[in-house]
Design goal:
Blueprint lengths: L4 H9 L20 E12 L2 E9 L10 E2 L2 E3 L7 H13 L6 E6 L3 E2 L4 E10 L12 E8 H4 L6 E7 L2 E10 L2 E4 H16 L2
Parallel strand pairs: 1-7
Antiparallel strand pairs: 1-2, 1-4, 2-3, 2-8, 5-7, 6-7, 9-10, 10-11
Length: 197
């Protein structure tokens, strides 16, 4: 995929029809009681499209050290998942909302911890210098879109949670181990892409 923002935006818009099946193998989940949103932001870097990701700080009470999209809980004043995702991205990595071209929101993803997460697909319209929040983000990095869309690259790992067996998916990129909800949402993109080639 060459660098062409309009063509990329059109391609991303096709994910609005993403078919969702309960194939992530998460087993028993809590009823989704908390709404959240994440920003799945694509940008052109090093001659290829990349996805913006963060590594959480090690001292956080939940998800410490994990790889995630910028994002968080939808607050009452946000009014929409898109606004929440943009606000959280600015707070976590210093991404100005003016540099973000929101394309579409994807079907929600329910986590085992009771969050209903709305992924918001977007393009960055210009380069920016990340300013990670020291309270939340240890590192900002980019994942090649080509790798994220390769369904064969995802590993399946068994687990047991509260006595219930299931599995989760993971994706390796260099020293990064991307797993859980982030990997599951990326894998949804890969599956949709593969089904529509």
């Amino acid at each position: 995929m060459a660098q062409d923002a309009d063509r990329m935006a059109q391609w991303l818009a096709g994910f609005a029809g993403l078919a969702v099946a309960d194939e992530e193998g998460l087993g028993q989940r809590q009823p989704p009681a908390k709404a959240a949103a994440v920003l799945v932001a694509l940008h052109w870097q090093a001659g290829a499209w990349q996805i913006l990701l963060t590594r959480r700080t090690s001292h956080l009470r939940s998800h410490a050290g994990q790889i995630s999209f910028p994002g968080g809980r939808i607050e009452p004043e946000d009014g929409s998942a898109e606004v929440a995702a943009l606000r959280e991205a600015e707070e976590e990595v210093g991404l100005p909302p003016a540099l973000v071209r929101v394309v579409t929101a994807l079907p929600h993803y329910d986590t085992v911890t009771g969050y209903r997460v709305t992924p918001v697909l977007a393009l960055l319209t210009a380069p920016f210098e990340p300013r990670p929040s020291p309270q939340e983000v240890a590192e900002v990095f980019s994942l090649p879109l080509a790798l994220a869309l390769n369904e064969a690259a995802y590993e399946r790992h068994p687990y047991v949670r509260d006595g219930v067996a299931g599995h989760y998916y993971a994706l390796r990129y260099g020293d990064y181990f991307i797993w859980g909800a982030t990997a599951a949402m990326l894998r949804r993109l890969a599956r949709h892409h593969a089904a529509n080639l």
